[in-house]
Amino acid sequence: MRCRDDVGGFISRHGISGYLRSFPVEVRSVELSVEATGSHPSGIVKTLVVRVDDGYAVATIPGDRRLDLSRLAKVLSSS
User: Which residue in 32, 39, 44, 71 has the fewest CB atoms around it within 10 Å?
Assistant: First the structure.
């Protein structure tokens, strides 16, 4: 799976202490990920894709956090 390879490469390149887990079924929420892994929500990483004017932006955040869309818009407009 291409996406998994990209995430794994990102983890390696940036020296992040972490690993990827695969599940036999699709896990669509932090709550289901916590049940499947026994982890705390802060140990889960969620990737959110947001549509912007000229395409898409990807935000990766801890499972126990919410994405502040107005803050994301400010960051994207300054880049």
Answer: 71
